[in-house]
Amino acid sequence: MPEKNDFNRRFQYYFCFLTGCGRLSPITTPEMQDPLLLTTISQTPFQPLPKTPIFTPSPLPSPSPTQTPSPTPEPAVLVGAGDIAICGQKGDDQTAALLEKISGTIFTAGDNSNEDGSLEQYQNCFGPSWGRFLDRINPSLGNHDYNEGDNSAYFEYFGKAAGEPGKGYYSYNLGEWHIVSLNSNCAYVGCGPNSDQVAWLQTDLEAHPARCTLAYWHHPRWSSGFAGNDGLIAPLWRTAYQGGVDVVINGHEHHYERFAPMDKDGQVDENSGIREFVVGTGGVNLLGFGKIHPASEVRYAGSFGVLKLLLYADHYRWEFISVEGDFRDEGFATCH
């Protein structure tokens, strides 16, 4: 069977050549001791594959600490109404109950005593209701706060908060806002274009170029109530408009009314106009409406209530809160 063995050897040779099986072992069977067949097959020495470089990732940068957003500054709060107290009536007690639940500065839009403005009436009628918050109140004068032309009881009762005695106009800052309280009893203090009060207002606004400004006084320049528009107030309104005032609050008309922003002539001016609120709802008998002003947006005479304003650095929110809880007017606007 040499041919068969020879075939096997050749097959093994080629198989190893093709598969790289390495050095052939010598054949040890007697019939396969042919020296020619003991020749070894050399093979290229084994070359290991080059090592694949190990990838070492660069260390990640330490994450930056999460930036905590700056908290929104708390707004200043201004709340109040006008036409407040008459002895023996309970409306002022109802609105005082609202004030008790609202922190912040209180404005009055005149007629704090809606009778004769005597010291006794301030102490015995206004005092037990709104007078409980006297240290928070910055008032303004109404026509009923003059006792036959004498407003001395008003200044005696409210003290330094009422401004310089005899004048009844002053200003203060509240948060980021500049606030002005004026005296609209023009027959007593003067509201004309050449009056001391108008000159003072112009100087005050120039000296306080705040982003946001609010003013309040008693008689509204514009109104849908029975008293209607008051032309005597025109110089105050015009000066406020030219000085960039954003909001004006009034009383006198015994209801609540909100206007669109208006220019010096009472025309709607969304860009630079003054938004007027009439809030004669502090506690004295409510009255309805007459001829509706074109810029009037909201009117209500269903119950007493207060106007609450949240004053931010560049805008404000308003909310009228009625004592009955059956009506609420709210919204917001950006300062000029």
Fill in the keyword field for this structure.
six-stranded mixed β-sheet; 13 strands; disordered N terminus
CATH superfamily of the largest domain: Metallo-dependent phosphatases
Summarize the main sheet. 7 strands, mixed
Uncertain spans: 1-7, 13-50
The number of helical segments is 7
Count of discrete structural domains: 2
Q: Quote the average pLDDT.
A: 86
Main-sheet strand order equals 4-5-6-7-9-8-10
What is the element string, with H for helices and E for strands? HEHEHEHEEHHEHEEEEEEE
CATH uppermost class of the largest domain = Alpha Beta
- Under the CATH scheme, the architecture of the largest domain is 4-Layer Sandwich
CATH topology of the largest domain: Purple Acid Phosphatase, chain A, domain 2
The tally of beta strands, per DSSP, is 13
Q: How big is the Rg?
A: 45 Å
Shape: globular
Helix proportion range: 10-25%
* Beta-strand percent range: 15-25%
- Structural class, from secondary structure content? alpha/beta
Distance linking N and C termini: 116 Å
Write the layout of secondary structure elements.
Layout: H1 2-19, E1 76-81, H2 91-99, E2 105-108, H3 119-126, E3 137-138, H4 152-158, E4 170-174, E5 177-181, H5 186-189, H6 196-207, E6 212-216, H7 234-242, E7 247-250, E8 256-259, E9 275-279, E10 296-300, E11 305-311, E12 315-322, E13 328-334
Parallel strand pairs: 1-2, 2-3, 5-6, 6-7, 7-9
Antiparallel strand pairs: 1-11, 4-5, 8-9, 8-10, 11-12, 12-13
3D structure, described in words:
By secondary structure, the chain is of the alpha/beta class. The chain has 2 domains: 2-38, no CATH class; 76-334, 4-Layer Sandwich (Purple Acid Phosphatase, chain A, domain 2). It is built from 7 helices and 13 strands. A hairpin with a 5-residue loop joins strand 12 and strand 13 (328-334). The longest helix has 18 residues, at 2-19. The protein is globular. The chain starts with a helix and ends with a strand.
